From TrEMBL:
InterPro entries: Beta-barrel_OMP, OMP-like, OMP/PagP_B-barrel. PANTHER family: BLL7405 PROTEIN. Residues 6-215 form the Outer membrane protein beta-barrel domain. This is Outer membrane protein beta-barrel domain-containing protein. It is found in: Membrane. Residues 1-19 form the signal peptide. Keywords: Membrane, Signal. GO terms for cellular component: membrane. Its main location: membrane. Belongs to the Omp25/RopB family. SUPFAM superfamilies: OMPA-like.
Amino acid sequence: MKATLVAAVIAMVGGQAFADGYKSVQTPRVTSVHDWSGAYAAVGISYSMGSYTTTGGSAYVAPDAEGVGISAILGYAMQDGAFVYGGELMGNMDRADGTAAGCGLGGGITCRSSIRNYLAARVRVGYAFNETMLFATLGYATDKQDHTIRNGGVKVGVNAQRHYGPTVGLGVAHALNEDLSVRADVEYYDFGDRTYNLTVPGATTIDTNTVSARISLMRRF
């Protein structure tokens, strides 16, 4: 009888120890990071605001320009764990305009500033929190702008110039499924200065900065 009881106790203790030991070797479940790698394309809607500073002592005050445009992005991303990096090309097709009266040139004068599309080549570096990724962009961009001045409705000065300069941006992307995601960007463009040959008020150097906000639908291939 005693032998039977001892055997039962040993069996119970041994079984419990085995169960505890089995539990101790269990590993926690690891959640995989969403795959952001590969080629991708995006289309979106942007809102751009251009501001101007006249240098060289000119009295001309160019009005700020703003407007809505359509954009497209083509890029390729690589991924190392949660880190995502790559390069992309962005094209923004819009017509941002600004008009004002006087413009520092006196009564009867009206003027208009316009941004005609811009392109950017840039690198993108991000960190993925599974289905959400925060990223930054850095690159070089170009756009075409023009300034028109009228006196009593008659053009007395008009000139277009292409600007070039660096661009930086911040953004966030969120995956909807394996291939589709939504993306939001805020970008700053320092397009530098160019000299505009205007009959009135004459040759004028204008420095340009542009801020753009964009929301896009992106597809990974």
